[in-house]
Design goal:
With 132 residues, the protein is an all-alpha fold. 67% of the residues lie in helices and 0% in strands. Helix 1 packs across helix 3 and helix 2 packs across helix 3. It starts with 11 loop residues before the first helix and ends in a 7-residue tail after the last helix.
Length: 132
């Protein structure tokens, strides 16, 4: 018989917040495509705000809010999950480009000719070639 305590690494609510934070950047890519801002800094801020809003909404709607600290913790967890998902999942797989994000020089170097021709005119215009 196993007498070890069965305790999860993270709670169910925390797991959902991490999943929400990982998926929200996909919508952020589309929003950044249709909105007028052009700098990457403003686009990153939009991603952070969107993941925080999504986590806060989930926390308000689906969980029992214990304190302001737990609300901030959920929003912070979603933001970190969104940033990691962007850099580990969506960007290396060029998913962000398919959702309208501008490709980085590293991503452009890895595109096939068919993928490059599939880029929009705005995406092609935003390509920055590094000066060496």
């Amino acid at each position: 018989m196993n007498d070890a305590p069965s305790q999860l690494l993270i709670s169910g609510d925390q797991l959902w917040v991490l999943l929400i934070g990982s998926i929200v950047p996909l919508g952020g890519y589309w929003i950044n495509k249709v909105m007028p801002w052009k700098t990457e800094t403003s686009k990153a801020i939009v991603q952070i705000v969107l993941t925080s809003i999504a986590a806060t909404l989930y926390t308000f709607i689906a969980t029992d809010i214990g304190s302001f600290t737990s609300l901030v913790e959920q929003a912070f967890s979603a933001t970190v999950a969104g940033l990691f998902a962007h850099n580990i999942l969506w960007k290396p797989g060029n998913i962000n480009i398919k959702f309208g994000a501008n490709p980085t020089p590293t991503q452009v170097a890895g595109l096939t000719s068919n993928e490059f021709t599939g880029l929009s005119a705005e995406q092609k215009q935003a390509i920055v070639v590094p000066n060496n």
